[in-house]
């Protein structure tokens, strides 16, 4: 069943990628595109090109799968507004990726150059301009995300409700970014704080918002189910973040699509880094960690030493065990939905967590 859930997610990914490319074509069609692009100026068109490129590079599109499967909990009939909601979700993800790469200084994203570094290469003598353009490109993706829902051919009350969900998700994600930065000041954070950061930076827009949007598109009332959706989303979001943290330290860079060790180099107190700092008590180990943590120039040899310390203390095993535990919690919660909703869609939510906690990218 895990294989079936993964296969269904891959099918959504394949179909959506073509639909997403069509969206960008119609958005900027010179013969009457949906967006009133100015006739002069190279910067706006360049920003749209970079947003398009980053958006179409791929990713797992799990948010898209969550959206369509949430609607499938209610009906197997076509549901108007799902395509627009899927595009909205992925545009918000593009916004988040661009701003993440600005904050982290990441050069690579999804196997190619990040947007901030593309601008940095284009304006090597004007770093402030490059930074400003990258920020604006991320902002453009965010506003397009809301626009596609607000202009969807839906009953006005439904379009308004779905746009409100997405606007709320975007605002809370930005708040999560503030928490993400604040977490790395002061002492090593406790698990409760890390869970809050995960909830606001990732879970609300990556899991909960797609579930809400899929149900709203069918005309369903969220109120009776929202607390369950929140619990499921929280457990799955923590499992997913734990796996992300594991991959950042122990993954295969070719599979992950970016260089490893970004949490170490940026000094980010992730789940894995927190576990490493708690476990490494020997003076020689602390010296290695103190040298590496927060050093953007940390080389691969030093990162290998950090990784060896982590493995010696079983950090790789403990972080993965926690990811598996939260994935099991999410799966158990979804399993309780069988008596209420359509079995095939419930099975997707029931079996996907185990896959996402074991993925290689």
UniProtKB/TrEMBL annotation:
It comes from the Bacteria. Its cofactor is Mg(2+). Keywords: Isoprene biosynthesis, Magnesium, Metal-binding, Transferase. The keyword Magnesium applies. It holds the Pfam family polyprenyl_synt. The keyword Magnesium applies. PANTHER family: FARNESYL DIPHOSPHATE SYNTHASE. Belongs to the FPP/GGPP synthase family. This is Polyprenyl synthetase family protein. It comes from Streptomyces ortus.
């Amino acid at each position: 069943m895990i294989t079936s859930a993964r296969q269904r997610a891959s099918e959504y990914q394949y179909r959506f990628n073509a639909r997403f490319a069509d969206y960008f074509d119609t958005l900027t069609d010179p013969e009457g595109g949906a967006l009133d692009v100015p006739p002069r100026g190279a910067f706006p068109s360049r920003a749209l090109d970079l947003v398009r490129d980053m958006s179409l590079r791929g990713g797992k599109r799990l948010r898209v799968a969550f959206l369509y499967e949430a609607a499938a909990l209610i009906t197997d009939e076509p549901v108007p507004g799902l395509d627009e909601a899927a595009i909205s979700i992925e545009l918000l993800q593009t916004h988040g990726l661009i701003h993440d790469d600005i904050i982290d200084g990441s050069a690579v994203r999804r196997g190619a150059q990040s947007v901030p570094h593309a601008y940095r290469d284009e304006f090597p003598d004007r770093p402030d301009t490059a930074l400003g353009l990258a920020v604006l490109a991320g902002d453009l993706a965010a506003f397009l995300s809301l626009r596609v829902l607000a202009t969807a051919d839906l009953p006005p009350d439904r379009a308004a409700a779905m746009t409100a969900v997405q606007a709320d998700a975007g605002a809370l994600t930005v708040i999560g970014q503030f928490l993400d930065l604040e977490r790395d000041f002061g002492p090593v954070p406790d698990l409760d704080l890390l869970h809050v950061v995960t909830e606001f930076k990732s879970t609300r827009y990556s899991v909960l918002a797609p579930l809400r949007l899929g149900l709203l598109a069918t005309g369903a009332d969220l109120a009776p189910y929202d607390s369950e959706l929140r619990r499921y989303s929280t457990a799955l979001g923590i499992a997913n973040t734990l796996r992300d943290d594991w991959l950042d330290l122990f993954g295969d860079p070719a599979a992950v699509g970016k260089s490893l060790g970004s949490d170490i180099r940026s000094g980010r107190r992730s789940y894995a880094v927190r576990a490493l700092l708690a476990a490494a008590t020997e003076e020689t180990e602390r010296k290695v960690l103190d040298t590496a943590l927060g050093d953007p120039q940390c080389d691969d040899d030093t990162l290998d030493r950090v990784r060896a310390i982590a493995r010696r203390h079983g950090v790789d095993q403990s972080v993965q065990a926690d990811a598996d535990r939260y994935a099991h919690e999410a799966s158990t919660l979804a399993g309780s939905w069988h008596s209420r909703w359509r079995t095939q869609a419930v099975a997707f939510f029931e079996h996907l967590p185990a896959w996402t906690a074991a993925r290689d990218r």
